[in-house]
Amino acid sequence: MDPAELVNAASADIAAVHSADQLESFRIKYLGAKGLLKQASDHIKQIPPDQKRAYGQALNSAKQSISEAFQRRKLAIDAQPVAVQGVDVTEPGRVTCDPYRPGGLHLIQKTIDDLIDLFARMGFSVADGPELEDEFHNFEALNVPADHPARHPMDNFYLDMPDGSSPLMLRSQTSSVQIRVLESQKPPVRIIAPGRVYRPDTVDATHSFMFHQLEGLYVDRHVTMVDLKTCIDLFARAFFGDTVRTRFRPSFFPFTEPSAEFDVQFGGSDGASRWVELGGCGMVDPNVLHAVGLDPEVYSGFAFGLGVERIVMRRHGIADIRDLFQNDVRFLRQFV
Ligand code: DAH
Questions:
Q1: How far is the CA of 72 from the centre of ligand 1 (A)?
Q2: How far is the centre of ligand 1, averaged over its atoms, from the C-alpha of 196 (Å)?
Q3: Which residues line ligand 1 (CB under 6 A)?
Q4: FRET label pair with 28: which of 56, 216, 272, 273, CA 20 to 30 Å apart?
């Protein structure tokens, strides 16, 4: 084929090249070791001597122009996105729910973090205990004897255990961490223990089979009820605002003596104020100190337990506890 015809044919062919495979076929056809350009250059032997020079020049320029066309096409094809079969990776994403928003901590966790900061300023550090607990830590050492109604299987999540092994349960209260801490630390002990607790309650607007408590414990020499009341009052005002008032109502818990429930007074939207119960508290019962080997003649302490969901709902005007656990982003994102 005459070099000029070769250039024409190649420029028609290259226009139809759209893929790497097609490009490779083009290369083999024109530029390959047995390709048309090679054949054309072998053909020079048969050219009459007086035309050899012109033929040679035409062939060189054909080689150059075809190589250039090949290179240009190669650049364009290399720059194409890799198409996965059936998927156009260049298509913009479809926005089905939400454009990209930053996430955040859950409202419960944020509240626990606030409480940790607040109690840290009063000298409390954070303690931790297992959610899968034995009866000694959840009940026995807390002065809740075996025949106590709070230990009834209907009111607790006991595990199915192999015969002969001691029962395990999902802890029903963070008070178990009081025992864990007193077993391993010498007074003075000043801890809070936030965490999950489990009770087989029927789920409704104010009950859940899992919720969070925050336990507090202070054991030292000469700890008194005044320390307890001061601590609860400081917490309530730091958390809910300086104008809230607190009150103690006599109550009963096996692990404290005396015991109280504490309420916080909030202003209602109608201008009236109402008392809202926040938790239980009291002076650590001597039997609890005995159970962990401390002498009640030497040491005394106070303890308290708050319901975290209750605080969260009160603080944010949430009427249904289920909203906190359903994980509907439309709800959760209000608090991010
Ligand atoms: N553990 C109690 C409950 O779950 C709450 C509680 C009451 C904790 C009094 C305490 C306390 O530390 O002193 O109902």
A1: 79
A2: 14
A3: 173, 175, 215, 253, 256, 280-282, 303-305
A4: 56
Q: Choose which residue among 175, 176, 208, 289 to substitute to test ligand 1 binding: the one with the highest number of ligand atoms within 8 A of its C-beta.
A: 175
Supply the residue whose CA is at minimum distance from atom 4 of ligand 1: 173
Beta strands in 128-230 (DSSP E): 132-134, 168-170, 189-198, 210-220
Distance CA 25, CA 20 (A): 9
> Is residue 245 classed exposed, middle or buried when 0-12, 13-18 and 19+ CB atoms within 10 A define those classes?
middle
pLDDT tens for each residue of 260-294: 999 999 776 666 788 989 999 999 999 999 999 99
Dihedrals phi, psi of 282, to nearest 5 degrees:
165, -175
Task: Please tell me the distance between residue 24's alpha carbon and the centre of ligand 1 in angstroms.
Answer: 79
Third-level CATH fold of 107-335: BirA Bifunctional Protein; domain 2 (3.30.930)
pLDDT tens-digit map of 111-167: 999 999 999 999 999 999 999 999 999 999 999 999 999 999 999 999 999 988 999
The atom of ligand 1 lying closest to the CA of 302 is: 13
Q: Show me where the domains of the chain are located.
A: 3-78, 107-335
Extract the tokens encoding 318.
């949430």
Half-sphere exposure of 308 (CA within 13 A, CB side): 28
Q: Whose CA is nearest to atom 5 of ligand 1?
A: 305
Structure letter (DSSP) for residue 150: G
Instruction: Give the residue ranges of DSSP H helices in the chain.
Output: 3-15, 20-26, 36-42, 49-78, 107-121, 135-138, 176-184, 225-240, 286-291, 308-316, 329-332
- Test site for ligand 1: of 174, 255, 261, 278, most ligand atoms within 8 A of the Cβ: 255
**Closest-CA residue to 256 (of 217, 226, 222):** 217
